């Protein structure tokens, strides 16, 4: 089992405690995280990414309980094992498309995927030397997916990756996430409200804090 979540709880400062049901995900599987607004979906994703740290419960990824390692160890572990796609692409404006992906290689400290091949698979190789400021929203989101995949992570986490995309780009982005995750044997976890995404992934858990 690649990922196991056990008895996980988290409280933001001054807020009531959020509790999460136990679940497990295998390599190569896809899972949606569903739930009402404010139920704790993004919090759960941030706990899985080690961007938030819980004092209650466990998040075990590839045999490592990421709740119990230091921040420094977590940064290294995340760079090697976790790719994150945010709602907005968060690309580095001073760098071109290829350089944004090279930065992911640098942080992972391991030999990742061939960047030009990845850009070609994602249909954006013509933009390799372009400033990220010149990309459309759909293209920028595809670059952020390429960046998340560049280091061949074992786990891909995506938070509402299609919320600002039209139907055509949503279709492209979701197909890319699924096919690329399968190609590198990664588990894929997507937080979404989007019915268009739900049509493509049947496995889900529901977060129910209110
Ligand atoms: N940094 C923070 N500080 C304090 N409270 C927070 C913080 N982030 C989230 N919360 C609170 O934690 C709860 C869960 O928030 P979270 O963003 O995880 O929900 P969500 O299910 O992702 O919501 P949405 O679907 O609207 O994005 C909410 O009550 C929210 O107000």
From TrEMBL:
Pfam families: ABC_tran (PF00005). The keyword Ubl conjugation does not apply. The keyword Nucleotide-binding applies. PROSITE patterns: ABC_TRANSPORTER_2 (PS50893). Residues 3-209 form the ABC transporter domain. Keywords: ATP-binding, Nucleotide-binding. It comes from the Bacteria. One of its GO terms (molecular function) is transmembrane transporter activity. One of its GO terms (cellular component) is plasma membrane. Belongs to the ABC transporter superfamily. This is Putative ABC transport system ATP-binding protein. It comes from Algoriphagus boritolerans DSM 17298 = JCM 18970.
């Amino acid at each position: 089992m690649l990922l196991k979540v056990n008895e996980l709880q988290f409280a933001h400062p001054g807020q009531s405690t959020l509790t999460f049901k136990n679940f497990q995900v295998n390599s190569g599987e896809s899972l949606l995280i569903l739930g009402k607004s404010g139920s704790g979906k993004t919090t759960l994703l941030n706990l899985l990414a080690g961007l938030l740290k819980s004092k209650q419960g466990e998040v075990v990824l590839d045999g490592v309980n990421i709740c119990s390692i230091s921040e420094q160890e977590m940064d290294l572990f995340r760079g090697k094992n976790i790719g994150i796609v945010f709602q907005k692409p968060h690309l580095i404006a001073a760098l071109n498309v290829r350089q944004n992906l090279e930065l992911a290689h640098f942080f992972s400290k391991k030999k990742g995927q061939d960047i030009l091949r990845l850009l070609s698979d994602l249909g954006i190789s013509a933009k390799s030397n372009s400033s990220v400021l010149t990309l459309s929203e759909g293209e920028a989101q595809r670059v952020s997916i390429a960046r998340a995949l560049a280091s061949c992570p074992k786990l891909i986490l995506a938070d509402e990756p299609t919320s600002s995309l039209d139907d055509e780009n949503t279709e492209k982005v979701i197909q890319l996430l699924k096919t690329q995750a399968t190609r590198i044997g990664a588990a894929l976890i997507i937080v979404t409200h989007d019915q268009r995404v739900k049509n493509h992934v049947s496995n889900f858990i529901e977060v129910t804090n209110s």
